[in-house]
């Protein structure tokens, strides 16, 4: 990400990440704070102890040895069911999201999960962010099915952090409450200014 931003020559930008994408965004802020003007984390669990027991369909798709077999045979309907299992309400899942997940291999997905766990075991995300000076918005569904919703309040330890809980929303705020999620992101981004 840093290489792409350097090539674009845009300087510091507003960075947002959903779920494990929040770990990528946080790592970018740690490694290249000059590139991150503000940071928004959506449904990003603060540490492994906040992970809830996962829905059956996700456990079946991810756990060896059955997961590897199911992964190869997964259909659009199975992917939609897996994503939908993390939402608190019925959602329309974009075809583009399904297509992206279809090309992701089982091995890659397992490696991403392993690295995410290692990253958050080493130091929680709030601890990492408390050491940085970057405006922070955290958006969390109050009915998140992947992460204990109350764990979002751990981000309150980050100086100046703004934590927004969305009632009746699960792990996919941008699909379950797109208008409210968009409003929060847009109202936060223009007001974020780099610290000097």
UniProtKB/TrEMBL annotation:
<dbReference type="InterPro" id="IPR050228">
    <property type="entry name" value="Carboxylesterase_BioH"/>
</dbReference>
<dbReference type="Pfam" id="PF12697">
    <property type="entry name" value="Abhydrolase_6"/>
</dbReference>
<dbReference type="InterPro" id="IPR029058">
    <property type="entry name" value="AB_hydrolase_fold"/>
</dbReference>
<dbReference type="InterPro" id="IPR000073">
    <property type="entry name" value="AB_hydrolase_1"/>
</dbReference>
<dbReference type="GO" id="GO:0003824">
    <property type="term" value="F:catalytic activity"/>
</dbReference>
<protein>
    <submittedName>
        <fullName>Pimeloyl-ACP methyl ester carboxylesterase</fullName>
    </submittedName>
</protein>
<feature type="domain" description="AB hydrolase-1">
    <location>
        <begin position="2"/>
        <end position="181"/>
    </location>
</feature>
């Amino acid at each position: 990400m840093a290489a792409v931003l350097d090539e674009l020559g845009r300087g510091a930008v507003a960075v947002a990440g959903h779920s494990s994408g929040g770990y990528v965004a946080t790592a970018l802020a740690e490694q290249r704070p000059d590139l991150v003007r503000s940071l928004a984390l959506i449904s990003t669990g603060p540490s492994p102890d906040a992970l809830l027991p996962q829905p059956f369909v996700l456990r079946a798709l991810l756990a060896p040895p059955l997961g590897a077999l199911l992964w190869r045979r997964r259909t659009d309907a199975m992917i939609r069911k897996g994503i939908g299992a993390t939402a608190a309400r019925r959602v329309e899942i974009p075809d583009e999201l399904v297509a992206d997940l279809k090309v992701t291999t089982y091995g890659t997905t397992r490696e991403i999960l392993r690295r995410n766990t290692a990253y958050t075991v080493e130091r929680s995300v709030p601890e990492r962010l408390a050491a940085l000076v970057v405006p922070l918005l955290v958006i969390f569904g109050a009915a998140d099915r992947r992460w204990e919703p109350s764990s979002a309040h751990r981000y309150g330890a980050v100086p100046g952090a703004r934590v927004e809980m969305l009632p009746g929303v699960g792990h996919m705020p941008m699909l379950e409450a797109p208008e409210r999620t968009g409003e929060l992101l847009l109202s936060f981004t223009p007001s974020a200014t780099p610290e000097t």
